[in-house]
Amino acid sequence: MMRSILVALIAIYASPVFAEASFGTWQIDAEDTALFYVTTKKEHVAETHMIPDVFGGLSAEGFLRVALDMGSVQSGIEVRDGRLREHLFDVINFPVATFTAEIDVTEYESLSIGESMVGYINGDLVVVGTEGFVDFDVLVTRVNENRVVVSSLGPAIINGADFGLTEGIDKLRELAKLPSISYSVPVNFVISLVRTQ
Question: Per CATH, is 2-195 categorized as 2.40.128.110?
Answer without folding.
Answer: yes
